[in-house]
Write a structure and sequence with these properties.
The protein has 246 residues and is α/β, with parallel strands linked by helices. 42% of the residues are buried. A hairpin with a 2-residue loop joins strand 9 and strand 10. The strands form 2 sheets. Strands 6-7-8-3-9-10 form a 6-stranded mixed β-sheet, with helices on both faces. A 4-stranded antiparallel β-sheet has the order 2-1-4-5, with helices on one face. The protein contains 10 helices and 10 strands. Helix 3 runs parallel beside helix 6. It has a single domain, classed as 3-Layer(aba) Sandwich (Rossmann fold), CATH 3.40.50. The mean pLDDT is 93. The chain binds adenosine-5'-diphosphate and magnesium ion (MG). Magnesium ion binds next to helix 1.
């Protein structure tokens, strides 16, 4: 499988503070990575560093062989990074439809020069029928779940090569969680879009991921196939620092 993302000896943080000490990882084309770890271990900092929104102190990031670490944040979307930050960046004063058309970019050639079916606002509405019903509503009028769907939709219409989802299910009602999980599984498993998904509650995400990485104190403390962690709840609990009830 062709390699899509390669991160080597990444050091990054905020100002002089180094949060990520020495991160190396890679992800194949079409793969989904579950990025796990307790609160404050650097998951968001890693996602934001891939998107170019932190201070990078060292190391390298390549997407499809192209160096990203030399690009400013606003050029990384064009390079193929579709970033859905933890705080769901939608334009609250624009309608749902305007949010999607404001950032839309044409499709790009897939692996081997094949044109993959581009993401358009219409395809986003197909994926999230709730958004189709809210086309002319302003961002301020959306529920938390609808805002998250719109944030994902905005990343999709950039036609990224790699989707970064930072706790996409956080704070949402169970029925919406199910809907979003189904959509994310379709986007990654069926459409073959590569993704990194940060999640506090790992089981649901491990089920739809190929690879898993666990961070602790800004370091990778575990990297394996997602199945390995899913089939070993004790190891998972230990890595996530969860006290196991006897
Ligand atoms: N904007 C910031 N400025 C300074 N330190 C930060 C900032 N954001 C996060 N941190 C620190 O970086 C560490 C990792 O945080 P974060 O990446 O948000 O963790 P996670 O997403 O795994 O919960 C924490 O110690 C946190 O306090
Ligand atoms: Mg976080």
């Amino acid at each position: 499988m062709a390699e899509l993302l390669k991160v080597e000896n990444l050091r990054a943080g905020y100002g002089e503070a180094v949060v990520l000490n020495d991160i190396s990882l890679s992800l194949g084309e079409g793969e989904t990575l579950a990025l796990l770890g307790r609160n404050g271990t650097g998951k968001t900092t890693l996602m934001d560093t891939l998107a170019g929104a932190t201070r990078q102190h060292g190391g390298q990031i390549f997407l499809g062989g192209q160096p990203l670490h030399t690009l400013p944040s606003h050029e990384r979307a064009a390079a193929g990074i579709g970033w859905v930050p933890q705080e769901r960046n939608i334009f609250k004063s624009l309608t749902v439809h305007e949010n999607l058309t404001a950032v839309q970019r044409p499709g790009r050639k897939g692996p081997g020069g094949r044109e993959s079916r581009p993401w358009t606002p219409e395809r986003v509405y197909e994926m999230f029928p709730r958004l189709a019903e809210r086309k002319t509503n302003l961002g301020t009028q959306l529920s938390g779940g609808e805002q998250q769907m719109l944030a994902v939709g905005r990343a999709l219409v950039l036609n990224p090569r790699l989707l970064l989802l930072d706790e996409p299910l956080e704070g949402l009602a169970p029925i919406i969680v199910e809907e979003l999980l189904r959509a994310i599984a379709r986007i990654t498993r069926e459409e073959g879009l590569s993704a990194i998904i940060v999640e506090q509650h790992p089981q649901a995400i491990l089920r739809i991921s190929h690879r898993a990485v666990v961070l602790d104190h800004g370091n990778v403390v575990h990297a394996s196939a997602a199945d390995t962690l899913q089939q070993d709840p004790e190891l998972l609990d230990r890595l996530l620092g969860v006290a196991r009830k006897l």
